[in-house]
Amino acid sequence: MGRANSKEPSEHALYMRKWRAMHPEYSEYQKQYQRDYLSNALRREAATRRASEYYYNNKERILKEQKDRYVPHPRQHPTGAEHPMWAGDDAKYAAIHAWVRRYKGTPSSCEHCGRKSGRLQWANKDHEYRRLLEDYIRLCAKCHYRYDVDQGLRPAMDPSAAGRASQKARKKRLP
Ligand SMILES: [Zn+2]
To answer: Rounded to two decimals, what is the model's pTM?
Structure first.
């Protein structure tokens, strides 16, 4: 015992020395492995350096090409003049919503699904947009859309997205 202080090689070290002497091909293999490992590491490092140099030297062109290739995600809902609410009296629509918000505050949860986050809106019950505070209910964007479609206040943009409730409602309204 007392290995830590002794200069004598351990039993295991002596065994390994003997073992390596009996298997010279192993030492050769180990040396080659180390050489390969180092040269591969150098190759990898050089490749990374070349790539980053290439990027910094051609940054503007690369970024421009990326920008040119970019295709925006197709919009699910029309906006601006394409939007059904835009046609007609959109100034009145915006003004009445500002009025509702002023008197009833910012909606805090959806009256249909109870959701408290995301886009919450004051929905007009019949799209007459009267200055009657009880005509406005809090709905999230999804329930608002569904409500309007169900009430026949706006066409379904995509019938499959309108859901079962609105499909039932549409069937009911058929003569
Ligand atoms: Zn909702």
So the answer is: 0.39
